Amino acid sequence: MEIVSPGSRKQDRTLKPMVLAEAGVPHFWRVELIGFREQLPGERPPVVFAHMLSDAAYALVMRAGAGTVVTLPGPIPLSVDPGGLLLR
Question: Is the dihedral of CA 44, 45, 50, 51 positive or negative?
Fold first, then answer.
């Protein structure tokens, strides 16, 4: 799981997934803590993006924002409301 930080956004969104895909890591989860360009209307951060390796690159298989409980696919299925990832 990669948590995107303001100082490393480009690296967290492009370089790290590419390196992990090249290494054959089958699952990659990315967490966006604050607003971002691709945010959908009504979607509240944090947003979790679940990717699975397909043909040597990651394919998005699920995305969920705060207030939505989802079960993320992966080697260890995880049910989570992304809003619970933030400290209050």
Answer: positive
Count how many domains the chain has.
Answer: 1
Q: Give pLDDT tens digits for 37-79.
A: 778 888 888 999 999 999 999 999 999 999 999 888 777 888 9
Domain membership flag for residue 39: yes
Q: Is 70 exceeded by the pLDDT of residue 5?
A: yes
Do 59 and 52 form a contact (C-beta atoms < 8 A)? yes
31 within a domain of the structure (yes/no) = yes
Angstrom distance (rounded) from CA 51 to CA 42: 22
Alpha-carbon distance of 47 to 49, in angstroms, equals: 7
- 88 is a domain residue: no
Do 44 and 21 form a contact (C-beta atoms < 8 A)?
A: no
